């Protein structure tokens, strides 16, 4: 299960696979080339490899 966040309406949509065409069900934005959202449940302290360009998170 993967998910993406729409850059236009910020709706999170889910899919079984990141392959294929992906369109936001809310506004119809084409999310095919949008980056995948990482599933972050209550694992805030377990941070996988993040791209350095992301804004720093306050790990309090
Ligand atoms: Zn949207």
Overview of the molecule:
This protein has strands spanning 2-5, 12-15, 36-37. With 60 residues, it is mainly beta. The chain has a domain at 1-38. The relative contact order is 0.23. It binds zinc ion. Zinc ion binds at residues 6, 8-9, 11, 24, 26-27, 29. Residues 6, 8-9, 11, 24, 26-27, 29 line the site of zinc ion.
Straight-line distance between termini: 29 Å
Main sheet attributes: strand count, strand direction, barrel closure: 3 strands, antiparallel
Shape: elongated
What is the quaternary state of this protein?
single chain
SSE blueprint and pairings:
Layout lengths: L1 E4 L6 E4 L20 E2 L23
Antiparallel strand pairs: 1-2, 1-3
The structure holds zinc ion (ZN).
Zinc ion binds next to loops.
Short descriptors:
mainly beta; single chain; 3 strands; binds zinc ion; 3-stranded antiparallel β-sheet
Can I get a quick summary?
The protein is mostly beta strands. It has strands at residues 2-5, 12-15, 36-37.
């Amino acid at each position: 299960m993967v998910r993406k966040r729409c850059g236009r309406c910020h709706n999170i949509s889910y899919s079984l696979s990141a392959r294929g065409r992906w369109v936001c069900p809310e506004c119809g934005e084409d999310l095919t080339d949008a980056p995948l959202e990482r599933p972050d449940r209550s694992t805030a302290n377990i941070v996988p490899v993040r791209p350095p360009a992301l804004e720093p998170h306050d790990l309090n």
